[in-house]
Design goal:
The protein is α/β, with parallel strands linked by helices and 374 residues long. 45% of the residues lie in helices and 14% in strands. Strand 7 and strand 8 form a beta hairpin. Helix 1 runs parallel beside helix 2 and helix 2 runs antiparallel to helix 3.
């Protein structure tokens, strides 16, 4: 806890100045504290000559207001309005909602190269604090050198989330202490991780986040300072995976593979030589023979080739034989006895019947006989 005079001294910095009114002890002599601030600025502020500010009038206006204040927040508002009368961006007072800081500790079993003091501590991407210490420790049982990271966090930076968690804890009849609430979050997988904030510079930050399927750990709510369990970060997992890959690559027998590859290449070279020296010439001869055969077949199948002409004559003979066979079958159908007795002789053709010819008329000039003889 700080007193109000410390608050006033911190308010005047001729630079950016922060103040938390909730952390100031309330007293009743706000008028005296206001006079201390007014006189301090009157003696130290060097820009009154460049500003049209009636500093005496500021005292007459805001002095009575400070005297009527009954809370620290009201008095902080008077001081803020007083400093605003200077119209100086470098002389102001702001009230932050950080609330009371809490110290936490985390143990990491891997390297934290890139993590520095004042590195941010984030919860779900929201800055809730900063790293204040990084110390090397020794674990005699495990024969390892873990890193102990200390950080200051401000739970009230979560705003309504913090208020809601407190209300839920009180509704359950539980203690609304941060350790009690943190124990519930740890049981659901909350872990601290060192994550990469910049791949180019390698800077790390601390992330409080929920890890899926995180192994259960013991969390002591009575431990002071509060111990937050940790988990390997994404960059550490990537390093582990790369290490496993490198180990597997190192186990590959490259020397043996190289020897076998050399032998295989030598055998392949011999095979190619054999193909070029023996197989390819034979293959060329085979292609030539095939080409000649195809040429002969093409000549034989041309329309004016002897083969085509003989084939046409043969087809004509087959047609005549088919017609003769058809006549035979027709005759046997009418005369089946011909198979035993043979074919009967064809009947002689009938003689032609004589036809009477008329008597030619007598020559002209001779008389024709009249009547008949007696």
């Amino acid at each position: 806890m700080t007193n109000r005079r410390d608050l006033i001294a911190g308010a005047f910095a001729l630079g950016a100045t922060a103040m938390s009114g909730a952390a100031v002890a309330a007293t009743s002599d706000y008028a005296a504290d206001f006079d201390d601030l007014w006189r301090l600025l009157d003696a130290k502020y060097c820009y009154f000559g460049e500003k049209a500010v009636d500093w005496e009038k500021v005292r007459r206006v805001y002095g009575p207001q400070a005297q009527r204040c009954t809370t620290v927040d009201a008095f902080a508002g008077v001081l803020r309005r007083t400093l605003n009368e200077l119209y100086d961006a470098h002389t102001h007072m702001s009230q932050t909602p950080d609330g009371e800081p809490r110290y936490i500790r985390m143990r990491f079993d891997h390297s934290l190269r890139g993590l520095a003091i004042d590195a941010p501590v984030e919860f779900q991407g929201i800055n809730i604090g900063r790293v204040v210490s990084i110390n090397l420790d020794y674990d005699e049982k495990a024969q390892r050198f873990p890193l102990i990271v200390g950080a200051v966090v401000y739970p009230q930076r979560l705003g309504r989330v913090h208020d809601k968690l407190v209300a839920i804890a009180q509704a359950r009849g539980e203690d609304a202490d941060l350790a009690q609430m943190m124990g519930q979050l740890v049981a659901h997988g909350l872990r601290a991780q060192a994550r990469s904030g910049n791949l180019l510079t390698g800077q790390l930050y601390i992330a409080l986040d929920f890890i899926p399927n995180a192994p259960k750990v013991d969390f002591d709510i009575n431990a002071r300072p509060m111990q937050i369990p940790t988990a390997p970060g994404s960059f550490d997992k990537l390093q582990e995976q790369l290490g496993v890959i490198v180990d597997k690559v190192q186990k590959i027998p490259f020397d043996s593979i190289g020897k076998h590859l050399d032998q295989t290449l030598a055998d392949l070279d011999g095979t190619l030589k054999q193909v070029n020296g023996q197989v390819l010439p034979e293959f060329k001869n085979t292609l030539k023979g095939a080409q000649q055969t195809l040429g002969t077949a093409d000549s034989a199948l041309s329309s004016d080739s002897p083969l085509q002409q003989n084939l046409g004559a043969t087809m004509q003979e087959l047609q005549r034989a088919a017609r003769s066979l058809r006549v035979l079958t027709d005759y046997l159908g009418g005369h089946p006895e011909a198979l035993i007795r043979g074919r009967k002789a064809d009947p002689a053709p009938p003689k032609p019947t004589p036809v009477d010819t008329p008597t030619p008329p007598p020559p002209s000039g001779k008389p024709q006989p009249q009547g008949s003889k007696p």
